[in-house]
C-alpha cells in the first residue's frame, strides 16, 4: 500500500484509531435532546462537546456543513472552530459540503475547502460529480498537491439516487462505476487523492477493488445499516483496508457528555473492526 500523499495521512489516522468516520450533524432534534437551544449559542455548545468527545477518538470526523450553514455567517464561524478543534485533536476532517460546479467556480470551492489559507480548510471535502468528473479537476489537483482528499459521490445511501446512479453510460458501465473508475485513474499514482461515497444501506453493484482510495460508507445506525452488513456488502467487492464506515446520529445520541460521546465512538469502531476482521 502506498505511503505517499493523502494515502499516508489517511493510513496513519486509521491505523491509530480504527475504521470509523464520526459525523457532527447538529440536527435541531439533537440540540433539543441535549437540552440546548436551537440557536447559534446552542450550535456552539453542541459543536464544542462533539469536538471534545470525537476529536481525540475518531480517525476521521465529518462535520455536515448544512447544519452550520443553516445559521448563516455565525454558523459558519462555529464550523471554522469545529474544523480547527478536530484537527488540533488529531483527527482528519472531512467537510461534508458536497460541492460541484463548472471548473471556474469549482476553483473557488477548492479555495474555500482545501486551501490552507482558508478558515474552512479541511483534510478532505465531499464533492458531487453531476457536472462531470472532469469539472472536479481544480479540487482533485489541489488535493493531490497538498496531500488532501476529495470524496466523490458514487452510490449514495438514500434510495432516491438509484435510477441516476445505476443508469448505463455510453460505455455500458453504470454511472456510479464510471465515477469509481475515474477515481481509480487518479489514484494510480498511489496518492489516494480520490475517495468515493458508497452507502452501506444496500448492495451497490460496484467493483471497488481497483480504487486504491478511501470508501466512505454512510448509513450505519440511523439509516438502518449494521456493521455486519458492511462485511457482506463490501467483502468481495472492495479492499476492506480502505473502507471507512460513517455514522452520525447513532453516535451523537450518546451526548452531550464528551466522555459518553467518546465511548460511543469506541463502541461503534470496535463493532466495525470486529465485523470486518471476522
Ligand atoms: O450517501 C450519502 C452521503 C452522505 N450522507 C451524509 O452522512 C451523514 C449520515 O448521518 P446519519 O445520522 O448517520 O444518518 C449525513 O451527514 C448525510 O448527509 C449520507 O447519509 N449518505
From TrEMBL:
Gene3D superfamilies: Aldolase class I. PROSITE patterns: OMPDECASE (PS00156). SMART domains: OMPdecase. GO terms for molecular function: orotidine-5'-phosphate decarboxylase activity. It is an enzyme of class 4 (lyase). Signal peptide: none annotated. Keywords: Decarboxylase, Lyase, Pyrimidine biosynthesis. It catalyses: orotidine 5'-phosphate + H(+) = UMP + CO2. Its EC number is 4.1.1.23. CDD domains: OMP_decarboxylase_like. The keyword Lyase applies. Residues 19-264 form the Orotidine 5'-phosphate decarboxylase domain. Pathway: Pyrimidine metabolism; UMP biosynthesis via de novo pathway; UMP from orotate: step 2/2. Belongs to the OMP decarboxylase family. Type 2 subfamily. This is Orotidine-5'-phosphate decarboxylase. It comes from Gordonia phosphorivorans.
Amino acid at each position: 500500500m502506498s505511503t505517499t500523499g493523502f494515502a499516508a495521512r489517511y493510513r496513519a489516522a486509521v491505523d491509530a484509531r480504527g475504521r470509523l468516520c464520526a459525523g457532527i450533524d447538529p440536527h435541531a432534534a439533537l440540540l433539543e435532546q441535549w437540552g440546548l437551544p436551537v440557536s447559534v449559542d446552542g450550535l456552539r455548545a453542541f459543536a464544542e462537546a462533539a469536538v471534545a468527545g470525537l476529536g481525540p477518538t475518531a480517525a476521521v470526523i465529518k462535520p455536515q456543513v448544512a447544519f452550520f450553514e443553516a445559521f448563516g455567517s455565525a454558523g459558519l464561524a462555529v464550523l471554522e472552530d469545529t474544523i480547527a478543534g478536530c484537527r488540533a485533536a488529531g483527527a482528519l476532517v472531512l467537510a461534508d459540503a458536497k460541492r460541484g460546479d463548472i471548473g471556474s467556480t469549482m476553483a473557488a470551492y477548492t479555495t474555500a475547502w482545501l486551501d490552507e489559507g482558508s478558515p474552512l480548510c479541511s483534510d478532505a471535502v465531499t464533492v458531487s460529480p453531476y457536472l462531470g468528473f472532469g469539472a472536479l479537476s481544480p479540487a482533485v489537483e489541489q488535493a493531490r498537491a497538498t496531500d488532501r482528499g476529495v470524496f466523490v459521490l458514487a452510490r449514495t445511501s438514500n434510495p432516491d439516487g438509484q435510477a441516476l446512479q445505476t443508469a448505463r453510460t455510453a460505455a455500458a458501465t453504470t454511472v456510479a462505476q464510471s465515477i469509481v473508475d475515474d477515481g481509480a485513474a487518479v489514484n494510480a499514482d498511489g496518492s489516494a487523492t480520490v475517495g468515493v461515497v458508497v452507502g452501506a444501506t444496500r448492495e451497490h453493484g460496484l467493483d471497488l477493488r481497483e480504487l486504491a482510495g478511501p470508501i466512505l460508507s454512510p448509513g450505519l445506525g440511523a439509516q438502518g445499516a449494521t456493521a455486519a452488513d458492511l462485511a457482506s456488502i463490501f467483502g468481495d467487492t472492495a479492499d476492506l483496508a480502505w473502507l471507512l464506515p460513517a455514522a452520525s446520529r447513532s453516535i451523537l445520541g450518546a451526548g452531550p457528555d464528551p466522555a459518553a460521546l467518546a465511548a460511543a465512538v469506541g463502541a461503534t469502531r470496535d463493532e466495525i473492526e470486529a465485523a470486518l476482521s471476522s
